[in-house]
Write a structure and sequence with these properties.
The complex is a heterodimer of chains A (231) and B (368). Chain A is mainly alpha-helical and 231 residues long. Chain A is 81% helix and 0% strand. Chain A is flat and about 70 Å long. Chain A starts with a helix and ends in a 9-residue tail after the last helix. Chain B has two domains: 243 residues, P-loop containing nucleotide triphosphate hydrolases (Rossmann fold, 3-Layer(aba) Sandwich), CATH 3.40.50.300; 115 residues, Roll (CBS-domain), CATH 3.10.580. In chain B, the strands form four sheets. Chain B has a six-stranded mixed β-sheet with strand order 6-7-8-3-9-10, sandwiched between helices. A four-stranded antiparallel β-sheet of chain B has the order 2-1-4-5, covered by helices on one side. A four-stranded mixed β-sheet of chain B has the order 11-17-16-15. The longest helix of chain B has 18 residues. Classes of the chains: A mainly alpha (231), B alpha/beta (368). At the A-B interface, helix 7 and helix 8 of A face helix 2 and helix 4 of B. Chain B: This is Quaternary amine transport ATP-binding protein. Chain B: The complex is probably composed of two ATP-binding proteins, two transmembrane proteins and a solute-binding protein. Chain B: It comes from Alsobacter soli.
């Protein structure tokens, strides 16, 4: 209640300052850029999931256990490189525009997904897998019916973290002509125009929260009840 | 039903199982017993090929296990593990139906089977079918573990220390329940245990392992009575003869067709009967043969009248179906040297003495 009052008071004060109307001036731009922003995030995120999930599954197979740590190190490297440098490198190889931006975001998003997939699958107790094999499940059935359902909570936690980072990093794509809300933020900085900057920054923050919330919901509903700590 | 023929398993230089020969007849419970690392679990897991033997052959139901597809083989063998291994992501119902589902049973049939099996293991289907494993106690979980292994009605069950993780009181209960179930279902069971008491209780045959070798394979009574070497003797415990009390029934030590008197018989008859048999007392029975009381020689010698006037209550009675452990406990509790044995209806069947018990226990040692 108090919080609501505070927000309301804040809004009223901003209104009095003439801030909100000037922010709303950018409404058309914001709506257009949000679309591009989400496209970048969705594309890179989907790619990261499409690669990270199978990679994590393969790395968690006993046969590849020896390579798992090595591959994780390499993927880790992708994340330790500062995001800006990563984008610069992507640009120097792939040129400017959306593709290098998507690639850079993909690399950034990949690690938490792979890491959590491996961790989630490894945390499935060995005796469950033995019981499943002993009852006559094929390796594929063990994965689908036992391992994945028991690991999916941890895997989705990885996707959640990855996507929150992803959406929050998309603005940097503007630097290599990738589009997105970064256009308002960086232009706002350059023009010393705080309203423009905020017109980009506030939607970016909101998007990150929204995506996090959406995946949180997915976690709540998709994870089987018996292994879902949320319900 | 299950036959192992010179089966060995090597892990690198380590010999886990060394040329084991054994045969488990259909319908019997074979307990593989031994200290940890003796190869008993490895031996069991080779039967459903969770571990592939390095040498030798295993026949299940007459077929060479190596020639059957391993997935098909495993679906035809029930499997229960110590950690129970119910899948936490599935309801109790789905857990029980794992193998039927793998075999492609119609859903209605498998779900009906799940409800029946819950009844069989004494759990209420109305309450438990839709629950998740985490909502159950350890004992309930293992009952469901057993139900799950029985789901597709396999002829063979493999059980890897199934009751090891359950508290002692519940363990006894579940063991008893399982034995009742087994008496009805007559599965061929291979059961891994490290607990000699459990083995004696459950087994029709015990296989004792040491360092990968099968040292002795025999009935529980024979193992307890005639351990082949010092290792087995030590493993089964220095009180092994006392453990046999549980295996022997009252009928094994009972003197059947005993002398008896009726209430209307004259005392002289009773005295004569006792002197004839060299007994200090004789049981008095009712008109149809139920044990009613006792007449002691000391108390009636030289007296006149009928038995009914001089009878005393029976000091101790034991059911003929009980094991000797119960009988001996009854004797020691009341400080008696003998007990009257009756059947379920109370009819007098015989008597059992401390000497008779000693003789029954000592019988296997005499011929050595």
């Amino acid at each position: 209640m108090l919080l609501l009052l505070a927000v309301f008071a804040c809004g009223a004060w901003l209104q009095a300052q003439g801030f909100l109307p000037s922010l709303l001036r950018y409404r058309g731009d914001v709506l257009y850029l949000i679309r591009g922003h989400l496209e970048l995030a969705a594309l890179s995120g989907a790619l990261a999931i499409a690669v990270g999930l199978p990679l994590g599954i393969v790395l968690s197979r006993p046969r590849f256990e020896a390579y798992a740590d090595m591959v994780i190190q390499v993927v880790n490297l992708g994340t330790t490189i500062p995001t800006l440098a990563l984008i610069a490198i992507a640009m120097s190889v792939l040129g400017i525009g959306a593709p290098p931006a998507v690639f850079a975001l993909f690399v950034l998003t990949l690690l938490p997904i792979v890491l959590n997939t491996v961790a989630g699958l490894r945390s499935v107790p060995g005796y469950l897998i033995e019981a499943a094999r002993g009852m006559g499940m094929t390796p594929w059935q063990v994965l689908r019916r036992v391992e994945l359902p028991n690991a999916v909570y941890v895997i989705l936690a990885g996707v959640r973290t990855a996507m929150a980072i992803n959406v929050g990093t998309v603005p940097l794509a503007f630097l290599i002509g990738g589009g997105g809300l970064g256009e308002l933020i960086f232009t706002g900085i350059d023009l010393m125009e705080p309203t423009m900057l905020l017109a980009g920054a506030i939607p970016t923050a909101l998007l990150a929260v929204l995506v996090d919330f959406a995946i949180g919901q997915a976690q709540f509903w998709l994870v089987p009840r018996g292994v879902n700590p949320l319900r | 039903m299950i036959r192992l023929d010179q089966v060995s398993k090597h892990f690198g230089p380590l010999v886990a199982v060394d040329r084991v020969d054994m045969e488990v007849p259909a319908g019997e419970v074979c307990v593989l017993l031994g200290p940890s690392g003796c190869g008993k679990t490895t031996t069991m897991k080779m039967i459903n090929r969770l571990i592939e033997p390095s040498a030798g052959k295993i026949f299940v139901d007459g077929k060479d296990a190596a020639s059957v597809d391993e997935v098909t083989l495993r679906r035809s063998i029930g499997y229960v593990i110590q950690q129970i291994g119910l899948f936490p992501n599935m309801t109790v119902e789905d857990n029980i139906c794992v193998v039927p589902d793998l075999l492609g049973w119609p859903r209605r049939k498998s779900r009906a089977r799940a409800a029946d099996l819950l009844e069989l293991v004494n759990l209420d289907p109305g309450i438990f079918l839709k629950r998740y494993p985490k909502q159950l106690s350890g004992g309930q979980q293992q009952r469901i573990g057993v139900a799950r292994a029985l789901a597709a009605d396999p002829p063979v069950l493999l059980m890897d220390e199934p009751f090891g993780a359950i508290d002692p009181i519940n363990r006894e209960v579940i063991q008893d329940e399982f034995m009742k179930l087994q008496a009805e279902l007559k599965k061929t069971v291979v059961f891994v245990s490290h607990d000699i008491d459990e083995a004696v209780k459950m087994a029709s045959r015990i296989a004792i392992f040491r360092d990968g070798r099968l040292i002795q394979y025999d009935t529980p009574d024979a193992i307890l009575a005639r351990p082949v070497d010092a290792f087995v003797a030590e493993f089964v415990g220095s009180d092994r003869t006392l453990k046999r009390l549980r295996l022997l029934k009252v009928t094994d030590a009972m003197m059947a067709d005993p002398p008896r008197v009726r209430a209307e018989d004259p005392i002289e008859t009773a005295v004569k009967l006792m002197e004839e048999h060299g007994h200090a007392s004789v049981v008095m029975v009712g008109p149809r043969g139920r044990a009613r009381g006792v007449v002691r020689l000391e108390a009636v010698q030289g007296r006149k009248g009928v038995v009914g006037d001089h009878q005393e209550p029976l000091p101790g009675v034991v059911n003929v179906k009980s094991d000797l452990r119960t009988a001996v406990s009854e004797m020691f509790t009341h400080g008696l040297t003998w007990l009257a044995c009756v059947d379920d209806e109370g009819f007098y069947k015989g008597y059992i003495t401390q000497r008779g018990v000693s003789q029954a226990l000592g019988a296997p040692y005499k011929d050595r």
